[in-house]
Each structure stands twice: as C-alpha cells, then as structure tokens.
Amino acid sequence: MNITQNFYDNMAADYDKLFLDWQAATREQAEILDKIFRDYGIDQTARILDCACGIGTQSIGLAALGYSLTSSDISDAELAEAAQRAEENKVTIRFEHADFTALEEVFSEQFDVVIAMDNPLAHMLTRADMDTAIQSITSRIRSGGLFVSSFRDYDALPEEKPTYSPPYIHKTQKGQRVSFQTWDWEGDVYHLTQYIIDDQGAPTVSKFDCALRAVRREELTDLLLAHGCREVVWKFPEETGFYQPIVIAKK
After folding, report:
1. Which of 137, 156, 177, 203 is most buried, taking the most CB atoms under 10 A from its CB?
2. How far is it, in rounded angstroms, from Cα 220 to Cα 197?
3. How many angstroms from the chain centroid is the CA of residue 204?
4. Whole-angstrom distance, CA of residue 196 vs CA of residue 205
C-alpha cells in the first residue's frame, strides 16, 4: 500500500471534519460544477467519471442534480464511506476501485466528463508520474468531452515554501474543531501532515501524513494539450466560487 492510499484509508472516517458542513458543501460544489458543465454545453444527460471521488463530496452532489455518476478511488475505506453516504442521500452511484493512473484497467468506456477535485493530482511526485495520470484520464474522455480538476495555487508556493497552512476553526454545538497542515519541503515536493483537533469535551488529535508536489499551471496545460485536449482554460475562485483554481480541458 503506497503512502497516498494509506493516507486516505486512515483519514476516511475523519475527512468530513475538514468541512464546517459537509452536506452543504456537496450541494454548493455540485452547483459550481453544474454551471461549468452547462457553460460548455453539457447537461444532466452527461455520463461523469469522478476518478478521485474520496468520500463522495462532488459525486453525491452531482448525482442529486440528476447526473449519471461513476466514481472511483484508490482508497477502499473512502469508497466504503462514499457508498454509505450515497445511500443516506438516496442517490445511485456506481463505485469502483481504480487508480487514476491506470483507468483503462477498470473502465473500457469513455465518459462525457471526468473530474478530479480537491487537488488529487498533486500526489503525482514527478512530471513522468503526472504524464501517466493525464494520459490515463484523457483516454477515458470522449471526443468533445471535458476534464475538470482543481489544484492548490502552486505557481507561487514553491518560491514562498510556507511551512504550514492557516488553520480552519469550526464552531460546533459542543465546542470547536481545528484543522491545519504542516509542510516540509524538498524542492517542489512537500511532505504534508494533516492535523484535526476536536475540542468537544475531552480533546482528541488526529494526524495523517502524505506527500504532494507543487505542480505549475504551465506543466498541466502542456500535458493536457499533449494528450489530445484542444482547449485548456484555468478559472480562479473569484470567478467560480470554488476554493481552489480549476482547470477545464476540452478534448
């Protein structure tokens, strides 16, 4: 089991603690993605593959809007969590274990849209790894379809090399929850430790480790164009309302 799979398996039961209101986030993010799709002429008849679905944050919201969702991840623990949440939200989603660097091993079909939200491709620690991931993802998109993914704004971070992320402080009925990350840099790669502190009576601390790479927009754009996309656009939070920059690539 690699460090990324281990990170998400261990974090599956706590992932929703990163949100003030996870249920509201599913609706809000689905509305943002729905607008992007419609701007490109894609409606609810589209077949969507969420190739890094996690606990279903985007998949469940989109399924609730009427989209046909297939959702995959490398973490069996997160897939199990997502399936349970889909059932609780009364939506139908096909779930599959799949690595987004080798989607063709699981999916023979192509999709109208492939999404990968919340910075998952930053787990590709070399350009060669990223090239493999982009080739795999674009191979599962039909001609005229879209790839939509979000990333941290990495164009400035490698120069600044911050050692931590600002904490999120969520007030709860019984106290508060604090989540933050520490970052240890080696070139463009940073080793991340995610802390979640639950102060709701007896305080508890959860800690999860992984590694990511600061991927510049130019690298992603070049790779997407090299693997069959004919148009690549970056949109930023002030335009979309999403908390990270979003890349939209049309095949």
Report:
1. 137
2. 34
3. 26
4. 6
pLDDT in tens, 48-101: 999 999 999 999 999 999 999 999 999 999 999 999 999 999 999 999 999 999
pTM for the predicted model, two decimal places? 0.96
What burial letters (b/e) apply to 29-59, b meaning 16+ CB within 10 Å?
bbebbbebbeebebeeebebbbbbbbbbbbb
DSSP state of 110: -
- What's the pLDDT at 1? 54
The predicted structure's pLDDT at residue 36: 98
Question: What's the start-to-end Cα distance of the chain, in Å?
Answer: 33
Phi, psi values for residue 142, rounded to 5°: -70, 160
In this structure, the number of other CB atoms found within 10 A of the CB of residue 99 comes to 19
CA–CA separation, 216 vs 168, rounded Å?
25
Where residue 47 sits, what CATH number does that domain have?
Answer: 3.40.50.150
Cα 205 to Cα 177: distance, rounded to the nearest angstrom: 10
Taking the mean position of all CA atoms in its chain, how far away is CA 127? 19
**Which helix (H) or strand (E) covers residue 139, if one does?**
helix 127-139
Give me the residues of the chain with pLDDT under 50, please.
none
Instruction: Answer whether 142's CB lies under 8 Å from 111's CB.
Output: yes
Identify the pLDDT of residue 156: 83
188 and 73, same domain (yes or no): no
Say yes or no: 169 and 76 in one domain.
no
Instruction: Indicate if 202 and 221 belong to the same structural domain.
Output: no
With residues binned 3-state (H G I as helix, E B as strand, rest as coil), the percentages for the chain, rounded to 5, are 35, 30, 30
pLDDT, position 16: 95
Which range marks the domain in which residue 207 is found? 157-211
